[in-house]
Design brief:
The chain is mainly β and about 190 residues long. The chain is built from three helices and twelve strands. The protein is globular.
Length: about 190
């Protein structure tokens, strides 16, 4: 059967024309659906994890309501904070860990990695548990703890290296402060 022209047709350069799918054996494949479970099985640490992973200490939580969602992305601007299904469909790194916000003052989350290398990490404190970021209510933090403005940080400011075993990171959460600013809580 001949490949059809249109949204699923290969463009001759290893990509799919007019479609964010991936080219697989000369045919375009549709993207997997975006679901809250994408990347969770791959990101789940095993008890006593010894392989490449991040142990992420989360500092400066406003409270212990809602959920924490930690996500790992490739360390480049194009893929940093990209849609999960686009990354997974393209065979790129995407890992997710999501838990009810722990009661301890500095929660630690573990996320498994595909191997040693450079990655970017985001943490969302979804205080109302609606699975959407609301800059007026929720908190956000990134590896490297870049200063936040009104746009996402550059991947270079959030890039961290992982070794062959667990690597500890400290991420400071940021919340809306005042009328038009976002930053860490005082004392965090």
């Amino acid at each position: 059967m001949r490949e059809q022209a249109g949204p699923l047709a290969p463009d001759g350069a290893g990509a799919c024309r007019n479609h964010p799918g991936r080219l697989d054996a000369g045919r375009c494949r549709p993207l997997p659906p975006s679901t809250p479970d994408l990347g969770k099985a791959e990101g789940q640490c095993r008890p006593g994890e010894h392989g490449p992973s991040f142990l992420v200490d989360i500092l400066g939580l406003k409270d212990h309501t809602g959920r924490l969602k930690l996500e790992v992305y490739p360390a480049n601007d194009a893929d940093f904070l990209a849609d999960d299904n686009v990354l997974v469909g393209a065979g790129k790194t995407f890992r997710r860990v999501e838990v009810n916000t722990p009661a301890e003052p500095t929660p630690r989350l573990c996320v498994r990695l595909p191997g040693p290398g450079q990655y970017t990490v985001s943490v969302l404190h979804d205080r109302d548990n609606n699975r959407k970021f609301n800059w007026q209510r929720d908190g956000i933090g990134f590896s490297g703890n870049p200063r936040l403005g009104w746009s996402k940080p550059k991947a270079a400011s959030a890039t961290v290296s992982a070794g062959n075993g667990p690597t500890t990171l400290r991420i400071v959460m940021n919340y809306r402060n005042g009328l038009m600013s976002v930053g860490p809580l005082k004392g965090a």
